[in-house]
Amino acid sequence: SEMCIRDSINAEYGRLPIATMADEEENTGPKYEYDGEKHPEDPTQQHGKGKAVYPNGDEYVGEYEIGKRSGAGVYKWVKMEVDEETGEPKIAMDEDGNKVFESEYTGGYKENMKDGQGKMVFPDGSTYEGSWKYDKRHGDGVYWYSNGDIFSGEWRFGLKHGRGTLISKETGAKLVGTFTEGQFVKGKWVMDDATYTGAYKDNKPHGPGQFMFKHSGNRQEGSYQIVVPGPDEEADPEAPAPRPIWTGGQTHAMSAESGLYQTI
Length: 264
Description:
By secondary structure, the protein is mainly beta. A hairpin with a 2-residue loop joins strand 11 (about 150-155) and strand 12 (about 160-165). The longest helix is centred in the first third of the chain and has 11 residues, at about 1-10. The two termini are about 15 Å apart. The radius of gyration is 25 Å and the shape is elongated. It has one helix at about 1-10; strands at about 35-40, 40-55, 60-65, 70-80, 80, 90, 100-110, 115-120, 125-135, 135-145, 150-155, 160-165, 175-180, 185-190, 195-200, 205-215, 220-225, 245-255, 260-264. The strands form 2 sheets. It has a 17-stranded antiparallel beta sheet, covered by helices on one side. A two-stranded antiparallel sheet has the order 5-6. It is about 5% helix and about 55% strand. The chain contains 1 helix and 19 strands.
């Protein structure tokens, strides 16, 4: 029944497909070993194609322009582990004695920063492929999370911003609409049995909205509100964050004769 569907939706909304992204890279420092082409008028400047090995073990192979990574290239971040004897960090090695890398970027660079089209594989296994600017995800791109969720849409300086779709692998639910500075603020929450359209706050439904039930075609308007302790009640500091509760009005059914909704 639609009541059962709404109950399952209220329980389900807490699993909206909002996943945490992998950490960004850290600066590796300016000093490194270089093997490659140099600037014809200044041999101290890397210029053309070359390979750099950084003091921390990271490696870059690709194009340079006047001493900076510019053009197409591949940057690999080395994996670190703790030495069992000394307790000090050390570079991880495989059985053949080769360095182990935990993340990799393949794509364009401009003045040492990721720029243009590129693909980044993060240490947790998540992957981003799309547009970059000033070393940040910027423009259109797709992010595959390590838990299987997928976001496809617009980015601005590393955050989801603009039109986009976020798909949950666990539930199959989709958020389709507008993101602002990484938060879903307006659009549709598409589930197997129903679609909710309304506003959002902190990636949760908030305020007036509407459910459309797919099998029956019925529609229900209502509102999601956070239930907070009253003035005479004390909040439990160990309690989970309060969840918005759906309060629905009357259900409207589509009339087969007129094609219009009528209250039932």
